[in-house]
Amino acid sequence: MAKLATASQFLCPLLFVLLLLCPCNAFYLPGTYMHTYAQQEEIYVKVNSLTSIETELPFSYYSLPYCQPKGGIKKSAENLGELLMGDQIDNSPYRFRVNVNESLYLCTTNALNEHDVTLLKQRTRDLYQVNMILDNLPVLRYTNQNGAIIQWTGFPVGYTPDGSSDDYIVNHLKLKVLVHEYEGGNVKIIGTGEEGMGVITENDKNTMNGYEIVGFEVVPCSVKRDPDAMSKLNMYDSVDKVNCPLEIERSQPIREQERITFTYEVEFVKSDIKWPSRWDHYLKMEGAKVHWFSIMNSLMVILFLAGIVFVIFLRTVRRDLTRYEELDRESQAQMTEELSGWKLVVGDVFREPTYSKLICVMVGDGVQILGMAIITIVFAALGFMSPASRGMLLTGMIILYLFLGIIAGYVSVRLWRTIKGTSEGWRSVSWSTACFFPGISFLVLTILNFMLWANNSTGALPISLFFAIFALWFCISVPLTLIGGFMGTRAEQIEYPVRTNQIPREIPARKYPSWLLVAGAGTLPFGTLFIELFFILSSIWLGRFYYVFGFLLVVLLLLVVVCAEVSVVLTYMHLCVEDWRWWWKAFFASGSVAVYVFLYSINYLVFDLKSLSGPVSAMLYVGYAFIVSLAIMLATGTIGFLTSFSFVHYLFSSVKID
């Protein structure tokens, strides 16, 4: 053994040095497969749905009278996440030739009718944005507001000048494409984006030389041109360049019988930005100090609660148990008559709770949601869920949720067996677990989808996708939940450490309702979450990118610890006042954080989303906020319940009672 230890001490440093000296290849995981373009190679821009922070109702790009491609409109393949988010990516007539700066004509529309004018004015006043994509990069626009440079994705459909009742359409684009010259090399690149996976090796060095697209910017403007003269041109004929912005008199108004001419300029600029860094501009988020402040604030809460738990375990509980165990049997019987607090409920603490089936179902669903959240955020923090892969995050969450049904079934049925002492009825518990949270979410989403259908929004799910999601639910999640439930019936039953009396003990009257304390307990977990919640809401509803998943992972772990501590403290407090009905209170002590999340979401709607207009937009917001809050309640409530169950089981297993 000594020789083996000496050899290992020698070999480990040697192996480390060899690993440092050996040649290796570099991998780039997030994003898409890198594509290089040859000089003057033609590339086309894609267009996504029109979006607005005013209404949150996406619409198709070609729902407005824009120029269409010569070969007709062709939709790009979309994953499940993109469809659920309302993305509709189409081809467009905007054509570039690599490193060729030019100003080109697209088309001149027919005379606008009343419907066209009404639609254009409505989209303009609702602040709808046109979202273009080049080589998987969204177009960026920079504006100067009060001396600060603000970055936006997309550009407006039109604008209404201050003090004017007329609306003007954006019909000329000054586009800038940043390119980086690539000369190949001994590099491997693995992509996870929409172009699929690919590897570039030294064998491809000669073919990969060319230009990478590392930036895409736009300056939109409105230009009034002579429609009769312009309509004589063909698509992609050259036109004069324009200096933007122009005076109001030279801009294109939105009026009936107007014929609108669409043109664009493109300029290629060489850049030192390398392809793996091209998303840095999009993912740069301000407020890192705020994130750290949130984490430090959460740590203070954790330390405070940890101190209380420390006192409960090492001083109160351990002292009482030691004193109790040192007495002989007769003294214990005499002492029991004089005891007060948690020791008096020893015969009732594991009494079956009301609605026992429901708590089993909610805990099972909570485990499923919590597992999905942790795995998704870990993978996102490691870079596997890049925003370059649109819809990947949502698709991954759905797939994880479906396959984690087996764990949900196992946990709910095993808890059911523990409470009931038998496996009878496990199929009903498994079915309820498989249908509880998905069923509520499906019902809410169906109602919201009918609203989107009524408004002809691209956010409405097609009926085929509806049935596809339904099939995934019943063909994957439900069977796996039933399999997990069957495994739960075969697992070892959790035995209670003490017997339950036949007659329940009377609970002493209290000066204040116990649920008041439970509801107030949710403020502590909410304190660890609300700052990050603000950034998440802003990214969802204000069209910003959220990619600080490292911070989010830390906050999630802190939230788990706080929920566990809060629930243990509240459970112990209830047992001390001889209240043995701790099951639901342990669940909602931490699960009540969802109430504060929902109220904060409403506060965000009223005070931060003042621009959100219309009852449909408000209903969409409230519907999505309800689903998220329900998921948070199930996940955090499960953390608190399982921790409290373990605490109570350990506490009373330490008491020796015949």
UniProtKB/TrEMBL annotation:
The record ties this protein, via InterPro entries, to: EMP70, MFS_trans_sf
Regions crossing the membrane: 292-314, 358-385, 391-413, 434-454, 460-483, 515-541, 547-570, 582-602, 622-652
Topology relative to the membrane: Multi-pass membrane protein
The terms describing its cellular component in GO are: endosome membrane; Golgi membrane
Keywords on this record? Endosome, Membrane, Signal, Transmembrane, Transmembrane helix
Repeat as UniProt keyword? no
Q: What is its subcellular localisation?
A: Endosome membrane; Golgi apparatus membrane
Q: Which residues form a coiled coil?
A: none
Q: Which SUPFAM superfamilies match?
A: MFS general substrate transporter
What is one GO biological process annotated to this record?
protein localization to membrane
Leader sequence segment: 1-26
Q: Which domain of life is it from?
A: Eukaryota
Family named by the database record: Belongs to the nonaspanin (TM9SF) (TC 9.A.2) family.
Query: What is the designated name of this protein?
Result: Transmembrane 9 superfamily member
Taxonomic lineage is: Eukaryota, Viridiplantae, Streptophyta, Embryophyta, Tracheophyta
